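Recap from last week: sequence in, structure out.
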Amino acid sequence: MGWFTPKQEFMLKKLLFVAVVLVLVLAQGYFIYAVQHGAIDAFTGAWSSFNVAQSGYSQFVFRSIKWWWALPAICLLLVGFVTWRPTVFRVVLALSFSLLGTVALYWSAYAPSLFIQI
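Predicted structure tokens:
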């Protein structure tokens, strides 16, 4: 006999799903906000002081950072839709989109090609 009823277990899974996606959305929002409020200068200053060339992808993300606010908004819309009409495919799609979006943002600043060679 389990600790939870099937209905409670289903709600627990929904809460866990929402919590994971919200953490990813918070990470996205933090990065976007930081880049818009001075982190661009910090990153480019560090790269230029060590003669590391900024990648084209990094330049693209930093140049178009105000449009990246659509990413957390889409993730939140997906969460709302998935909690309303959950299927395994939709859950995997929402988690994958949120995770890949977060990786795409952070990759623009922390790609291996942007690391300082010692």
